[in-house]
């Protein structure tokens, strides 16, 4: 290629010939350029005009859309503002209701905090008042020691178990274990008459008695002797076992031949190996629906227990406590005069209350003294017999060898 170019020679154009041609060419080019330029300018003007119209239309459309959008957005903003304002108002109301509720709860809490101590104190006061009323005699109210046996077999059994265990627990409270056996070993008899008033004047509310004496015998033999005297008849008292609840609890009926007095009691015997003693309890029954009153008969509620405390193999301390309430008959509680008369006192219709009280208390002391002396005579036979060291467990079966009425 380079060789070819080297061999080619160019001749210069002649000036005369080429000037006309160049002039013509340039004129043609100029005319073509002018024509084309005019056409181009026209087209451009048309395009520009069309574009201008399109732009105007687009701007108008955009302005319309913008106005619509602005109106819509303004309306939306108005709705949103209203909703937001309503939401704020709703929240304020909700918060205010919460605050009001909290204030109410705080007010109630403060009220109950002030009321609770008073209510608790009032309840405690009522409880203590009821407890005190149950521990001490109350006028016009039934005695907590009053007992009534129903004809139902299960009720009678449960009632007898309850009364016997109650008497035993009271005996343990009255006579706790002693630290030394030298404490209070002297014999004594103490009688207290608790008086009350009714429509007829003074009356006996309860008779409280405490007796203590020593027996020269083993405590097991002494307890057996009392138990046999309780469930067996003697010339003064006709005894019969009405019901038996196991071997250590019996329902016994005593009928005194010299006076019109029938005594119904639930008797129980308890062995306490830890304290080395035997306890016999008796609970008087005034009202038994299986045994209604007969004319002229009187009974009394009451409770008593005897604690036979082992001291040595040949010495026993006996502690006997009695609480007997006013006797009742088919007509109700007896008067002071009737109570003293049925107790064997030599009373007169014109005796004053002080005289009746003195005679009644003297009769009670003589009765206890006679019962103690008679029991000591019954136990005197053990002085010549050997002690029962080999039978210290005192089987309950040995205390129940009596026939049921």
Automatic annotation (TrEMBL):
Region (Disordered): 1-86
Highest taxon of source: Eukaryota
Acidic residues composition bias: residue spans: 30-61
Compositionally biased residues, Basic and acidic residues: 1-17
Name used for this protein in its record: START domain-containing protein
Organism: Aphanomyces euteiches
